Amino acid sequence: MKLHTYVLALIGFIATTPAFAAEQTVTFSVPSLTCASCPFIVEAAMGGVDGVVTVTANADTQTARVIFDDAIASAEDIALASTSVGYEAKLVSDDSNS
């Protein structure tokens, strides 16, 4: 009976606990993306941040679109990673509400 009570309590806790963490999608302006190899460098730097799921950098639009887990990483962490390898990144949009 005691085990049954604990199991029910655990199920109730899990069912009522809101999910605070969520995947966020953001777009960064990266003006120094000027050559064919630049996106690979930015993708590697941003993708190396814990919590980043995907990075797509584009030299034509000079942007990087990043999907990440906001419980693990922040947009600031990701921008700093890009800046640390010589490609300043500035947040231009938060597409997570779509």
Specify the CATH architecture. 2-Layer Sandwich
Number of domain units: 1
The whole-angstrom Rg is: 19 Å
Largest sheet: 4 strands, antiparallel
CATH topology-level name: Alpha-Beta Plaits
Arithmetic mean of pLDDT: 85
Number of strands: 4
* SSE sequence, one letter per element: HEHEEHE
Q: What class, by secondary structure content?
A: alpha+beta
The shape is: globular
Helix count equals 3
Strand residue content:
25-35%
The gist of it:
The protein has 98 residues and is α+β, with helices and mostly antiparallel strands. It is 36% helix and 27% strand.
Q: How would you sum up this structure, described in words?
A:
This protein is an alpha+beta fold and 98 residues long. The protein has one domain: Alpha-Beta Plaits (2-Layer Sandwich), CATH 3.30.70.100. Helices cover 36% and strands 27% of the residues. It contains three helices and four strands; from the N terminus they run H-E-H-E-E-H-E. It has helices at 2-16, 38-47, 75-84, and strands at residues 23-29, 52-58, 63-69, 90-94. Strands 2-3-1-4 form a four-stranded antiparallel β-sheet. Helix 2 crosses helix 3 (75-84). The model has no long low-confidence stretch (mean pLDDT 85).
Q: What is the secondary structure topology, with strand pairs?
A:
Elements: H1 2-16, E1 23-29, H2 38-47, E2 52-58, E3 63-69, H3 75-84, E4 90-94
Antiparallel strand pairs: 1-3, 1-4, 2-3
Write out key terms for the chains shown.
98 residues; alpha+beta; Alpha-Beta Plaits; four-stranded antiparallel beta sheet; 3 helices; 4 strands; 36% helix; globular
